[in-house]
Amino acid sequence: MRVSIDGLIFKQSPNGGISRYWAELFAAMELLDANVRYNVALPLGVHYPIRARTARAGSLISYWNAWRADLFHSTYYTEWPRMRCPFVVTVYDFIDALLPQLRPNNFRFVQKQLVQVKRADAVIAISKETGNLVETLAGVERDKIFVAYPGVPAPFRSTLPSEQDITLFRQNQTGGAPYLLHVGKRDNYKNFRTILKAFCRIADKTDRHLLVVGGKHPLPEDEIDWMISSRLLNRIHFLPLVDDKTLHIAYAGADAMVHASLMEGFGIPVIEALASGTGLIISDIPVYREIAGSMATFVDPAEVGAWEEAFLQPVTVQHDWREKTLNRFSWCASASAHLDAYRSVLAD
Description:
By secondary structure, the protein is of the alpha/beta class. The chain is built from 16 helices and 13 strands. It is 43% helix and 16% strand. The strands form two sheets. The protein has a seven-stranded parallel β-sheet with strand order 3-2-1-4-5-6-7, with helices on both faces.
């Protein structure tokens, strides 16, 4: 089976979550030995090191192979020029469409997304909740929608960090104090300010610190003002760039991973945290309920007082949650769901 891929996402966000999603998928498809050959057409000037026998990246050769492909799979709502084969698209979320006031992209993005989703012969959604929105927002028939959960990334499937590593990390970051952990971007729909506001209000009632990992950009001036006025410059810590090994330790050493997102298409930090043996205090939104089930403390994302209360409570972690998460969210299962979608399209 020859599948052509546009490499647009590798240009737009080479180190982002979607790029990593595809890299993991290529490797998992190879393990399945499913006779799938991906040809990735990269934009000029983009070099993405794909390490899989089943995927070849290039420019001219991949464009040429697109004309002979069995199907085309869009990485990010693009349509192949003068396409002669069936078309599959992956949907990651509908944040732009449903939260227009907080739109991460723009109105034209929403139009492009919906047009391509409606045109597709099959749609792969990264969660059941996202699949439901494909049906309701784009009017796609249920039998054309396939759910392929992202898997737990390899570094977080490995053995849990040692107590020595955790103790050293905590000593370096918080002086040895326990901490709550926020991971990833802090865009407006991520609702990080609710986390920060709640922590500032209850900091004098707990010995916990707040560790903010990722997001690249430092906190804006008004958020720093909150920290100063609350006298918490020594209790809130910012670690913008970390490798996966360090992030694994950060999860394992936290009292809980905290996320107050208003909406998500999935939630990679949620499964990374569970795979690291970490508790969760997360927003009560449908996709987080779908992913975490009974393995989290859920809080209304708009209720600052509820977050304050949650930050003061012990967080439950059960020993079998890690194994349940690893079994449920695997890249081989995701690759199998992709195969189901491909075969369905080709059978039609």
